[in-house]
Amino acid sequence: MSAFSAIGEEAELDRDEFTPGIEPQATWCPGCGDFGVLKALKQAAPELGLTPDEILLVTGIGCSGKLNSYFDSYGYHSIHGRSLPIARAAKLANPGLSVIAAGGDGDGYGIGGNHFMHTARENHDMTYIVFNNEIFGLTKGQTSPTSPKGHKSKTQPQGSAKDPIRPLSLALTSGASYIARTAAVNPRQAGNILAEAIEHDGFAHVDFLTQCPTWNKDAKQYVPYVDVQDSDDYDFDVNDRGEAAEMMQETEDVLHEGTVLTGRFYVEEDRPSYQQEKIDQGQMPEEPLAERYFDDSADWQRTADELIARHR
Amino acid sequence: MTDSELVWRLAGGSGDGMDSTGQAFEKALMRMGLNVFSHRHYPSRIRGGHTYFEVRAGGEKVRSRGDGYNFLLALGDSFARNPQEDQPAYYGEEEVKPLSENLDDLREGGVIVYDEGMLEEDDLATADVDLEERAEANDWHVYPIDLRGIAREHGREIMRNTAGVGATAALIGMDTEPVEELMSDRMSGDILESNITVLEEAYEQVTEMDQAHDVQVPEGSHEENQVLVSGSQAVAYGALDAGCRFIAGYPMTPWTDVFTIMSQNLPNFGGIAEQVEDEIAAASLAIGASHTGVKAMSGSSGGGYALMSEPLGLAEMTETPLVLVEAMRAGPSTGMPTKPEQGDLEHVLYTSQGDSNRVVFAPGTVEECYEQARDAFHIAYDYQIPVTIVIDQKLSGEITNIEEALFDREPDPSLGSVLTEEEIADAPHHESGIFDRFQHDPENDDGVSPRSIPGQKGGRFLATGNEHTPQGHIEEDPDNRVFQMDRRMRKLDAIREELDEFEPVHQTAYGPEDAEYGILTWGSQQGTVEEAIDRLNDDGHSVKALGVSDLMPYPEREVTDFLESVEECLVVEMNASAQFRGLTQRELGQFGEKLSSLLKYNGNPFEPAEIVEGFEIQLNGGDEAPSAQTRIEPAAGD
């Protein structure tokens, strides 16, 4: 008998049931791409039969960090850049939960870059949505890690001398086992990709292009977009690391030339997730650790029985 | 206890097995009925360099490493030799350091055994040491023995440590049986056989030598079963027995000890250990696991703990239970990685933005490490608040015998103030169905609001580092802000009240209750202060001590009572800016005229004699300069 009866509960919910009664209306700017992420998530969750009480949505700081204010589930609005380490421990503590982390491009590829690299490397079974608007929005328009070279802002008055980070390539090199890019302007694809990412058994990274009409007016609105799976112009095997790497490089190169390529870029189905590896190696219990604390008949080992003899 | 004690120092090369040989010898002494206390000294380098392991043993309780020692076993330093023999020795005179560098602390009448197979007396000249002259002046008894030769002949060269232990036993009138017993526990087959032969050969050879010294193994017996435990082990075992089943960390000296012990044992206890990319991640993982219904911990030393500042504040704001360990070392910055200091007190109390809302314990002994680690989890999970256990390189590496019965306790897997799904169903919710996670129950004035755990039906809420409503939604309304702040801060008052009722008490009083003078200290210096108190009272002074463990919330009543009862008080701590004295004056708002400080920050912990000296100087007006590397800071007034 689980102490967490929401986990795995059968339910057919409507997308509106993921709208919290406290803050039903998001306060992002009109035209903001972040609405697209919220909409896609509200599509994906009921599609997968999930209920609000079995999802833990962990966010960072920024406009994107407000996602769990507007999505009804267990939420943890953490600190800048640190959604991933909180989220992955939650998944280890209770693998039954659907754990989703989300944050902006500054949050994930800048201040939290180290965690991104290592969470991908370890292949935790979770989804990471990065709201990529190529700008710092909440702090009013500074150059971000994904801003194109030459991007001018109050903090880069002469224009950025830096090449932008390559999010997809970075995820691949680091070890993510599901890598996709979608765009707020393409809600149907975005919903499908999020559903796939949540279903994926391993670290799923979704680079979500979210236009910022307030602070990044010069940037493209990510239209027209191309779905690389639907287009005859692109032919590569998403299961092949080498071909995926080339496709990602091209995708990252052409974004700033006005060609918005989206879709699945890399999918590795047979790599075991981190917790599976840990269970297989005897480093983690098979039963969710969180359950034990609610189980009155659980056996709690004592140092007196296990460890003290060697100190005599 | 100075006349009837053995203080045995094993000196040699770092990497030559000093620790394992020393610990085995210490355990043999414990099994013979003695009380033991050991101290490790090592340089901040990987291999080579001179290191020692010191065991103090006596029939009475041993509270500190004492001052100096009376038996030196100087082994060679195998890493001091340059593998390219035609080149000049890379480490210079380093190879005689196990002998030459240890002489200053050797007491009059002391014994020196050195391995003449590795160290030649001629080498001492290169280090400018005239051993003969100094031995005569100090009445030392020197026994050069070819330990390497014995090891080579009857076993392997590496067994020269064993030969040294055999020689020691022969010189102090100690039976080799407990040593052989311990060897049988750890080894088998040919290796065991050779070691025993080497031990016995050395013993016999040395027994036949002319001996003229007085140092002998003391006598003692234990009424209760004893176990040999270090401060780090006690912290880790306390955590395990408190039901902690998750640790995340990143290596850093000396925190690595606790992290290693937990990582090695957690899988067997059905738990999870994670070594992660940095300390920000480590603290964040512990928060994630705790939020999801697991008792979790992390920790680090000064620099790594600095990286945990922001997650620590997040735990305060989201009221996520969290236990951290801060194993201090000498700072600032990288400082002296393997040297103890108590310089991180203010760092631990105040790091992270906003008003501190946390609990800090600094255990003073190995027993307290175990007790207060358990208490830390109890308080953290009951009150949904971060608790930091502050230790230092001194306490973490100290090994001493304690009663085995200390560990014979029921585990405490309670998650504290959490609700079950049935209780959640009856608990207040927002009209939209969101659980009032941060809703104070007006009937309950400790400020704690029981939480739900992700996955529980009907328990969903938002945890956020922003100020928030009862449901966790971001809110900057002034009334809500004051209400939530007051509620969180009120938890500290409730915790103080509970701590005041704790058994055993966290503040340790020592010495005659009606004493005229006081010594106040915190954390790891407690045992050393207690030994100084004994000596001072034996010398006709009237002085008592209070060792403080609770640093936040501060034990106002206990310290006030203590300070009111004495004329003057010396505050002993291992830092340069008298941080604990400052805290005490700030918390109590009085006693500024009574409190002077004795400070030490040279990388070594206080010795009892230094405290005795500091106390006597202060008693005489404080004008004299201490002979030791300590500093007296006069009372600053209120």
What can you tell me about this protein's structure?
The complex is a heterodimer of chains A (about 300) and B (about 650). In chain A, helix 3 (about 105-110) packs across helix 4, helix 4 (about 115-120) crosses helix 5 and helix 5 (about 165-175) runs antiparallel to helix 7 (about 240-255). In chain A, about 30% of the residues lie in helices and about 15% in strands. Chain A contains ten helices and eight strands. In chain A, helix 6 (about 185-200) links the parallel strand 5 (about 180-185) and strand 6 (about 205-210). Chain A has one domain (about 15-310): Thiamin diphosphate (ThDP)-binding fold, Pyr/PP domains (Rossmann fold, 3-Layer(aba) Sandwich). Chain A has helices spanning about 35-45, 85-95, 105-110, 115-120, 165-175, 185-200, 240-255, 275-280, 290, 305, and strands at about 55-60, 75, 100-105, 125-130, 180-185, 205-210, 225, 260-265. By secondary structure, chain A is α/β, with parallel strands linked by helices. Chain A has an eight-stranded mixed beta sheet, sandwiched between helices. The longest helix of chain A is centred in the N-terminal third of the chain and has 14 residues, at about 35-45. Chain A starts with about 35 loop residues before the first helix and ends in a 6-residue tail after the last helix. Chain B is of the alpha/beta class and about 650 residues long. Chain B has four domains: about 5-205, Pyruvate-ferredoxin oxidoreductase, PFOR, domain III (Pyruvate-ferredoxin Oxidoreductase, domain 3), CATH 3.40.920; about 230-405, Rossmann fold (3-Layer(aba) Sandwich), CATH 3.40.50; about 420-500, no CATH class; about 510-635, 3-Layer(aba) Sandwich (Rossmann fold). Chain B contains 22 helices and 22 strands. In chain B, the strands form three sheets. Chain B has an eight-stranded mixed beta sheet with strand order 6-5-4-1-3-2-14-7. In chain B, strands 9-8-10-11-13-12-19 form a seven-stranded mixed beta sheet, sandwiched between helices. In chain B, strand 2 (about 35-40) and strand 3 form a beta hairpin. In chain B, helix 7 (about 175-185) runs antiparallel to helix 8. The radius of gyration of chain B is 27 Å and the shape is globular. The mean pLDDT of chain B is about 95. Classes of the chains: A alpha/beta (about 300), B alpha/beta (about 650). Chains A and B meet through strand 2, helix 2, helix 4, helix 9 and helix 10 of A and strand 7, helix 9, strand 9, helix 11 and helix 13 of B. Strand 2 (about 75) of chain A pairs parallel with strand 15 of chain B, so a sheet runs across the interface.
